Amino acid sequence: MVNRIISTPPAKAAAAATGGAAVQRVNVDDSGDGQRLDNFLLRLLKGVPKTHVYRVIRSGEVRVNSGRASADTRLAAGDEVRVPPVRVAQRAGEAATVPAREFALLFEDEHLIAIDKPAGVAVHGGSGVSFGVIEQLRRARPQARYLELVHRLDKQTSGVLLLAKKRSALTALQQQFRARDTDKTYAALVIGAWPAAKKVIDVALHKFEAADGQRRVRAVAADDAGARRSITLVKVARRFERYTLLEVTIKTGRTHQIRVHLAHEGHAIVGDDRYGDFELNRQLARGEGLAGVRLARMFLHAGRLAFDHPASGERMQLRSPLPAECVRLLGVLGEPH
Predict the structure, then answer these.
(1) Structurally, how many domains does the chain consist of?
(2) CB within 8 A of 49, min separation 6: which ones?
């Protein structure tokens, strides 16, 4: 049996989202093939607050082919998405509160944009964040016909971030990420002396929602329910008296993977506000004992990303220099060992 592929126009879906509308059943067409569920719904339900969209996904009210789905579920052409009745709660002029912002460019052509994302900026709105990189960049470029995130970085992680300017580029790049054909390297400053022999972390991770509604991740046994195999490669870059600067490469792209893997090994990332040493973080934020140098962020930086260009196939190597606040901190930690 072949399902007929249809697509409900966004304007119609948004209109139906008011006044106690009935459940919507939307069939994904070719334009939504390979798209994340959250992005699909955010485009479909214009005017519905992002926090509400993420809430109905987490609650299980949104179904894909009659089954529960998460925000990062990839859709395929022909999938049926059940959309519960939602209300438009956006106030008049609310969109204008998103400030237009351009970010430092590492590369741009007609297919993609690579920016140098600063720490402290979310990549998109939702889960208590009103807006992020994608909303600000769309606001700054109203003439852009298409602009989508290719991948994610945590809010407190800085460095190379890719965005697609064409649907074909998005599909090609995301396929590379799924097939692990990309090469992502991070700089991470961790607490303590990292053991030189520890070069591979192959520990399964499980993502869950904590009591406060925030996403959390924990290391679990490989046979644990919900476990997903996760692999991180670690190389010591520099050693200091109380810290180690690591070069980290991820072979899988799980939520909070580097943060949880390093903390699980007993060496949390400096400044990590979820899995780190909270008292040390407060001391660093105040500059105590470090000649007044402060670090009020997590020391995790996506310094290099390699991938094949979605049109030419050329291997791209993009680099982002270590941010100034991280360089200053390294300068007062003492001579490397």
Answers:
(1) 3
(2) 89, 90
Nearest Cα neighbor of 33 from 100, 80, 78 is 78
Cα 269 off chain centre by: 18
- Encode pLDDT of 298-317 as tens digits: 999 999 999 999 999 999 99
231 Cβ contact list (under 8 Å, min separation 6): 200, 201, 202, 250, 251, 252
Domain with residue 59: its CATH number is 3.10.290.10
Could you confirm whether 181 is annotated as catalytic? no
- How far apart, in Å, are the Cα atoms of 135 and each of 31, 115, 125, 243? 20, 14, 7, 37
The structure's pTM equals 0.75
Find the domain containing 263 and state its range: 183-331
Q: Indicate whether 15 belongs to any domain.
A: yes
Among candidate residues 154, 181, 202, 223, the one labeled active-site is: 154
Q: What is the pLDDT of residues 242-272, one digit of tens each?
A: 999 999 999 998 999 999 999 999 999 999 9
Upper half-sphere CA count for residue 288 (Cβ side, 13 Å) = 8
Domain match, 18 and 147 both: no
